[in-house]
Amino acid sequence: MTVALLLAACGITACGTPEETPPPAALAETDPVTLSFVFLGCNRVGWSPKGHPKLPLPPSTANVPQLLQTFEDIKALPRAPEYLFFTGDLVRNEQNGAILKDQLALWQGLWDNGALANTQTRLVPITGNHEVLKSVQFAHKGYYEVPDSSSNTEWHTWLNAHRHPPQPGNGPTPATNPGDLLRGDNSQFTYSFDDTTSDGRQVHFVILDTDTQSRFSTTDTLCYQAPHDDVTFQNQTIEGTMSQDVPGWIPLNWVQQDLASNSQKDLIFAFGHKPIVWPGTADPTGTVSDGRDTIFNCGQKMLAKDLFTAFNTTDGFVAYLGAHKHLWNAAQIQNSLWQIIAGDAGSELESGDAFGFTLVEIHQSGKVMATAFTRPVPDPYYGSTGVVPATASTPFALKEPGR
């Protein structure tokens, strides 16, 4: 991806302009990398694209050829990254916990037999809407999404069974954070942890469950997906969304407390599935969101707005990194806060023509660089023919030394 293509991909009005930088190898030689990580999201397959017959879903519901090639590509990097943050939609689910359990078990087999198994790169899986929500049909072409308690239970069980982070998790619970209106223990869904670069810088990572189960209640119809009230469909009563938990909820109070407690850290990164703002929307302060496409932002609970403020006013904060929209997009919201959407891991793309992942490298100088790695999308997009290793685009700076 050239600089010109990168700028074209930055759909937000206040788009950050990548600076000309030396090639990665030259930069690493003069300014060594002291810690690095990869992030990506949205690898699950969906329905067959137009022009192709409808095929059975792979049992894991992952885009297996793309996933396995990405594991190979990450292993082939000159320096092994410390972490792979998978920012949601590993599998398709959106039904119930029993189905999620089966899909995650099969996905785990892909990881266990993939190129990154038994390497120093640690997998950090993060919930997406396809892991912890259920999709409900209420009209011939109408669906809404709400949190599913059985899927939340199975995600928790899977994390612990395979010792994926966190162990045990320092996140919010109803007792410790009553203001976040949690329905259950969220301490292993939203949490934070620290690491140290090889030259001693402290790095803080914040993980967000952007579809947290909550007890939020309001009568404002702007804050809910359609239908607001109960409806009849296919001779069944479909419960309206005003009587159900909203999607896109985050434990904002906990996040604010965590950032305040860690503001002295040198570098802070946050990860979540849903964006703060949708590409093409530059202002998170007044945009109403029912939580379906971005973090909930409506009525008296302007969570996306307040999250943006919390990140933007925290010393050391570098970027919010997520997925959900099936494309790659990097931009500075209101010319300040970096948001990178890397929803290009293998789900059918909404924009662009490449699958891949993004590498973030912290250098000895304090510079933080991001590089998108891309490969062409085969036809059909979930096919195994023509899958090739990804190649690096032009790196760009998320943070300059001393800033």
Task: Supply the key terms.
403 residues, 6-stranded mixed β-sheet
Secondary-structure map with pairings?
Blueprint (H helix, E strand, L loop, with lengths): L2 H7 L14 H7 L2 E8 L23 H12 L7 E5 L9 H16 L9 E5 L2 H4 E7 L2 E6 L1 H13 L29 E6 L5 E7 L22 E3 L2 E3 L13 H10 L5 E6 L30 H10 L4 E6 L5 E6 L3 E6 L11 E10 L4 E9 L14 E2 L3 E4 L4
Parallel strand pairs: 1-2, 2-3, 7-10, 10-11, 11-13
Antiparallel strand pairs: 1-14, 4-5, 6-7, 8-9, 12-13, 14-15, 15-16, 15-17
Largest sheet: 7 strands, mixed
Q: Helix- and strand-based class?
A: alpha/beta
Strand share of the residues? Answer: 15-25%
Distance from N terminus to C terminus (CA atoms, Å) equals: 26 Å
The low-confidence runs, each spanning 5 or more residues with pLDDT under 50, are: 1-21
Question: What's the Cα radius of gyration?
Answer: 20 Å
Q: Write the H/E string, N to C.
A: HHEHEHEHEEHEEEEHEHEEEEEEE
Mean pLDDT: 91
Shape: globular
Number of helices: 8
Helix content: 10-25%
Number of strands: 17
Account of the 3D structure:
This protein is of the alpha/beta class and 403 residues long. Helix content is 20%, strand content 25%. It is built from eight helices and 17 strands. The chain has helices at 3-9, 24-30, 64-75, 97-112, 129-132, 149-161, 252-261, 303-312, and strands spanning 33-40, 83-87, 122-126, 133-139, 142-147, 191-196, 202-208, 231-233, 236-238, 267-272, 317-322, 328-333, 337-342, 354-363, 368-376, 391-392, 396-399. Strands 1, 2, 3, 14, 15, 16 and 17 form a seven-stranded mixed beta sheet that branches. It has a six-stranded mixed beta sheet with strand order 6-7-10-11-13-12. Strand 10, helix 8 and strand 11 form a beta-alpha-beta unit. Helix 4 runs parallel beside helix 6 (149-161) and helix 7 runs parallel beside helix 8. 48% of the residues are buried. The model is unreliable at 1-21 (pLDDT under 50).
